[in-house]
Amino acid sequence: MSAVGMTDTLCRLEAMLLIRAYEETLVEFQRGGAPGTCTSVGQEACAVGVVGALESRDRILTNHRSAAHLIARGADPGRLMAEVLGRVDGYCGGRSGSLHISAKELGVVLTSTIVGGELSMAPGVALAQKMGQGEPGGITTVFFGDGAACEGIFHESLNLAVQWQLPLLFVCENNDWQAFVHRRETMPDNAIADWAAGHGLPVATVDGNDVEAVHAAALEAVAAIRADGRPRFLELVTYRLRGHFEPDDQAYVDADELARWQARDPLQSQADRLLAQGALDADEFAQLREQAAARIEAAMVFAQASAWPDPRTLTHHVYAEQGAHS
Amino acid sequence: MSAVGMTDTLCRLEAMLLIRAYEETLVEFQRGGAPGTCTSVGQEACAVGVVGALESRDRILTNHRSAAHLIARGADPGRLMAEVLGRVDGYCGGRSGSLHISAKELGVVLTSTIVGGELSMAPGVALAQKMGQGEPGGITTVFFGDGAACEGIFHESLNLAVQWQLPLLFVCENNDWQAFVHRRETMPDNAIADWAAGHGLPVATVDGNDVEAVHAAALEAVAAIRADGRPRFLELVTYRLRGHFEPDDQAYVDADELARWQARDPLQSQADRLLAQGALDADEFAQLREQAAARIEAAMVFAQASAWPDPRTLTHHVYAEQGAHS
Amino acid sequence: MTRMTIEQAIHQALAEEMRRDERVFLMGEGVATKRRDLMQDFGAARVRNTPLAEAIIAGTAVGAAASGLRPVVDLLFAPFLTYAMDALVNSAGKLRYLSGGQFDFPLVALSMTGSGWCVGAQHNHNLEAMFVHAPGLKVVMPSTAADFKGLLKAAIRDDNPVLFFTDLALLHQEGEVPDGADHLVPLGQAVVRRVGADVTLVSYAKTVGVCLQAAEQLQAQGIAAEVIDLRTLKPLDETTVLRSLRKTGRLVVVTEASGLCGMAAELAALAVTRAFDALRAPVVRLTGPDAPGASSWVLEQAALPTAEAVVEAVQGMLGDAVVVREALATT
Amino acid sequence: MTRMTIEQAIHQALAEEMRRDERVFLMGEGVATKRRDLMQDFGAARVRNTPLAEAIIAGTAVGAAASGLRPVVDLLFAPFLTYAMDALVNSAGKLRYLSGGQFDFPLVALSMTGSGWCVGAQHNHNLEAMFVHAPGLKVVMPSTAADFKGLLKAAIRDDNPVLFFTDLALLHQEGEVPDGADHLVPLGQAVVRRVGADVTLVSYAKTVGVCLQAAEQLQAQGIAAEVIDLRTLKPLDETTVLRSLRKTGRLVVVTEASGLCGMAAELAALAVTRAFDALRAPVVRLTGPDAPGASSWVLEQAALPTAEAVVEAVQGMLGDAVVVREALATT
Ligand SMILES: Cc1ncc(C[n+]2csc(CCOP(=O)(O)OP(=O)(O)O)c2C)c(N)n1
Ligand SMILES: Cc1ncc(C[n+]2csc(CCOP(=O)(O)OP(=O)(O)O)c2C)c(N)n1
Ligand SMILES: [Mg+2]
Ligand SMILES: [Mg+2]
Question: What would the CATH number be for the domain defined by B3-22+41-76+99-270?
């Protein structure tokens, strides 16, 4: 099966498979002691659904749990892995590691692993678009978690975006976890949508495990933002199927809750849908999986072959105009 | 006329007159070059109405615009003035000046002039009450402005109070100004109540220039908090009749808007009400004014007679157990 | 040359740079109220009052700076920077490096501080050293009208995030400022305000005046003090300081900020690590105490380094030197 | 004595102090998950998971501390302290003073930092100096299991706000810890980890180990290095440092933190202001660079001061001393 002629729904399945393969391969590799990552296993539909609704002139901000957003945006898994391993061919030359990967060439900018950092910078990125920087008509999308919604900057960011009418799409992936704390310990039940609604911008709450539903909602929100230049808010209800950061035994996780959500795995759901529609058969599905695995295998080879940064470059890139400041 | 036998409504008028006399006397004095203050002229009904609903076991947090809250709580105007002038007989020995006056003996604690600082500390004060510190059944009241509601800490403070079920009364004095910026430039129109409501706690919006309405709303909220231990929110709609900080020519203020609110002066309204009810006559009113003026005159004499702190005490009170750290 | 206050110098710098480069814009709580003429000249899009929320003001500046604009944000009083620390320290200071140099952050964060106004420690806290300690940021704190203008213009043109501190007490001080929109003072260059061979007095902002006063008094006693105004705290002009130290062998550092891990510590460290052989006496730090700023005028004054204290310190140093010299002569 | 990891020492200290004083309670993102046994022993009211919001966690601690409780808050990684700066710097550090001593703030803020985990500068930033610079706060950063336990217990009993930093790399390191709930290490006391007369190596946290390693290597070359572990950064134990300097006349300060306005600057300043006459060589600062922490293992390692660098610095110093001594002998 080739991407040419593939339907959009199938492409979304393919993208989710690639993300899953990437993250599971890294997890396996990390068992050997390499630095861990925050995976988005179980949340792939959020990334694929939203990012697929964006154009190249748009900007994306993400956080510690960024691999799905980056891959959905077309990032090279090899360069991502090289970054995770701290190698020169990584998107940030190995300086970032997994936690703050940005890729300007893809419009994935200013990733912060400070929870809420993305929310603090996003209005500025959107403001620059509004004030004429970048390609005309571009909008900004900021991905963040339910935990980030507890930070004060959430409130400040929403208020500024509303007040200044910024072309900014807030996407909260509500995955029920904030590291090792369940969301229910941190906020009332419908808090995220209620808080957002209090700011008076349009809010949609969507099943974050249904990539088609996410995609449809994102398309609508993006079109609306492009039409009137004002912010929109999407809450994507999903679940973190793996631990916070690898390795993590998830001993603190309620087994029933986890099982309920495992049964709603977004990849399987999308595959089931396509299988039921006859748009995919079992062989093709297996083939898609294999293609993804093969791409990620090659990526891992690339990453491991990538050189370490030269220690003599330690202080490069601290300041602009290197050399002016020693 | 003596306080004995005075009705509560009359006492509230008297308290407002005392606050007004205090602030206007200071403003006059500051024309001579003494450090300025943030007056609450026009907002006296908020302080008097709410503070009168509290008991001595309750705690109060306030901010840069604190004189009304302190005087309503029974602070000695002489010691307040001494503090503003930086003298040893001030509540904080002159270290605070006007901007962060707290008076532990009155239960007015942890005043911060960092906008939002009061909101950051209030849940801790209420938590201590909930966990058995202080007299049983005490609650905490935190006064803050519409500007403070823009700070992220507003969101965090409300969420924690709701989530932890803290006996905390949030009182937002929405006076339409945030220093030199009108509230309309900073938030949507009904934002404060909407934001608070998004947190799922009971919210009441009240005419902050009607001391009886404020008092009734505060009594209700305080009783509710004492009954179930959970937070409540009052938005008091009022207006800052003077500048942000003395001296301030208010050149940036819309004259019509100001005039509209001047016509709604809370002192005059309360006096008119009492005069109309026959609970007060013009002579008595004049007498109340004179009593207030006399008390404040005496306070000013006291403050000016108070000594300057000894410069050799400069580093006293930085650390507990003075001397352990040099 | 035109005589103007430092307040005017700042305003001119802003106006000129906004005129020169349309990517420059200004935001903060009340900037459009305070600088109404700029708002009228450049439009409401480029001179923006903000909600009262320092974290998002600073964060927005960071995002805008990385996206092609050149924001100047007025964060009012230095203690309010505590709300903006994530944006400044973790984002502006680190994301260039962590991204492997993908982004520049040409932004300027203005703030005010300094004693003399009886406002107390939540408005008056000289915490510039915190930003010197943080990587990726530049820090400027000038003392004269000409430098305020030239350094602010240079800061706006710099591709790095710059913290620009104004000592309140200087705002209404006047000085001669070179005419023309080309007047720039490069970041990272200290200036010798007074030449002398006996002792080096290093300072910045308001306390440069204290040093100059002290130098005047010392002159009367036949002691020639060299006075260095750092102007930029980071990058620090080590060359100018070291050159002076190699000549005088004696250093007094004078700051209003607390000494502990402050600029005074940094200068003393510079001396003892890089000019040890030249040193002829203990370095003296004359700094504010390890205490919050009090409001009371007398306490506020008591916390400030004075010209008298500088003079005394220098006399102490030279006295010792004389004693030592005499002792050596008699062996 | 019982052998345990530093992680265990911290946990024991928390458990013992909570048992001893019911006003002590613990809150933070995940503390009830991570310290489940404490939650079970002391109840959910005293071991509280919080919303993900550092500013209100710290602010709540400040309010609670001033109201009769003794909170310990876990703020996780040091860079997250940037969200808590107002509560820590402006409230906890200043409101005792500004209120004229009306309130005490017996609170402890825990946080972790340090290289070795490839997590990058937004988790790894040794910014302890910022809090040393701020008035009204105490700062602790131990290196051994016994000190972690004894200092954390003392910090919890202290009536001042204490920033308690843990270098991540130490967490699983083991050490002997005195038995019994009475084991306290007073704040403000450094310890001489190794006695020597030729040079003083001053450090804290993980780099104490680097100094000890270096001292071992130097010993083999006949050079006796004294190693001082500061343990508490504020209040600083100047006496112990100065006593050593008066003996050795040589100082190398080793920190993982950046040198600029850092603890290394402070120590160098201490030496040159208070022990100048004893100094026989330039002070050396061996510190992390003025750069954010990189994630890549090789860059992270390259940023760390090594035992080899310490040895080299000492050799350089003593080499010079020998040269000078010889020069003097021939005149
Ligand atoms: C300011 C800050 N506090 C705490 C952390 C540690 N931390 C990293 S991710 C995380 C959970 C974030 O939860 P959420 O925002 O829901 O995102 P998710 O991890 O679920 O994707 C925490 C607590 C951090 N990185 N930054
Ligand atoms: C964090 C912070 N930002 C800015 C200021 C300067 N400032 C002092 S009062 C004030 C306005 C506050 O507005 P609001 O909260 O509505 O209270 P009001 O003054 O109207 O009573 C401002 C901006 C401050 N003190 N703290
Ligand atoms: Mg989450
Ligand atoms: Mg207001």
Answer: 3.40.50.970
Which residues of chain D fall below pLDDT 50? 325-326
* Domain shared by C64 and C165, yes or no: yes
Give the ipTM of the model, two decimals please: 0.97
Answer yes or no: is the C-beta of B145 below 6 A from any ligand 2 atom.
Answer: yes
C185 part of a folded domain: no
The answer to whether B151 contacts C83, with C-beta atoms less than 8 Å apart, is yes
Tokens of C277: 């052989």
CB contact at 8 A, A241 and A42: yes
- Contact of A288 with A14, CB cutoff 8 Å: yes
Is B22 in contact with B68 (CB distance < 8 Å)? no
Same domain, C83 and C48: yes
- Residue A114 to residue C58, Cβ atoms within 8 A: no
How far apart, in whole angstroms, are the C-alpha atoms of residue C268 and residue C208?
Answer: 17
Assess whether the C-beta atom of A146 lies below 6 angstroms from ligand 1.
yes
Q: Is residue C278, in this structure, part of any structural domain at all?
A: yes
Gap between the Cα atoms of C147 and D148, Å rounded: 48
Q: Could you check whether the bond before residue D235 is cis, i.e. omega within 30 degrees of 0? A: yes
Cα–Cα distances in angstroms (integers) from residue C253 to residues B31, B112, C230, C245, C311, in the given order: 38, 33, 11, 12, 12
Provide the 10 A C-beta neighbour count for residue A227. 9
Asked whether the CA dihedral C48, C54, C59, C62 is positive or negative, the reply is positive
- Judge if the beta carbon of residue A148 lies within 6 A of ligand 1: yes
The two tokens of residue B96 are 């605070």
Cβ atoms of residues A6 and A14 within 8 Å: yes
Number of domains forming the structure of chain D = 2
Task: Indicate whether C160 and C31 sit together in one domain.
Answer: yes
pTM exceeding 0.95 = yes
Is-contact A70 A100, C-beta < 8 A?
no
Sheet with C138-140, strands from edge to edge, namely C47-49, C24-28, C70-77, C108-113, C162-167, C138-140, C232-234
Asked if residues A161 and A231 have their Cβ atoms less than 8 Å apart, the reply is yes
Dist CA B313 CA B302 (whole Å): 22
Q: Tokens 């993908």 appear where? A: C102
Rounded to the nearest 10°, the torsion over CA D69, D73, D79, D83 is -50
Chain C neighbours among A 36-95 (CB < 8 Å)?
59, 61, 90-95
Domain region containing C29: 2-177
pLDDT at C320: 58
Query: What band does C319 get if pLDDT is binned at 50, 70 and 90?
Result: confident
**Closest Cα to atom 5 of ligand 2:** B115
Token code pair at residue D88:
């820590």
Q: Which two tokens stand for residue D319?
A: 């080499």
Cα separation, B325 vs A319, in Å, equals 38
Looking at the fold, whether C148 and C206 belong to one and the same domain comes out as no
Give tens-digit pLDDT for C4-51: 999 999 999 999 999 999 999 999 999 999 999 999 999 999 999 999
Q: Nearest to residue D129, comparing CAs of D17, D13, D236?
A: D236
Which CATH number covers residue D230?
Answer: 3.40.50.920
H or E stretch covering B237: strand B232-237
Is C53 domain-assigned? yes
Q: How far is CA C227 from each of CA C209, C211, C252, C285, rounded to the nearest angstrom? A: 10, 7, 10, 15
Taking the CA atoms of residue C87, residue C90, residue C94 and residue C98 in that order, the dihedral angle to the nearest 10 degrees is -110
Which residues, 6+ apart, have CB-to-CB distance to C222 below 8 Å? none
Q: Which atom of ligand 1 is nearest to the CA of A151?
A: 1
D10 shares its domain with D159:
yes
Q: What is the pLDDT of residues D71-130, one digit of tens each?
A: 999 999 999 999 999 999 999 999 999 999 999 999 999 999 999 999 999 999 999 999
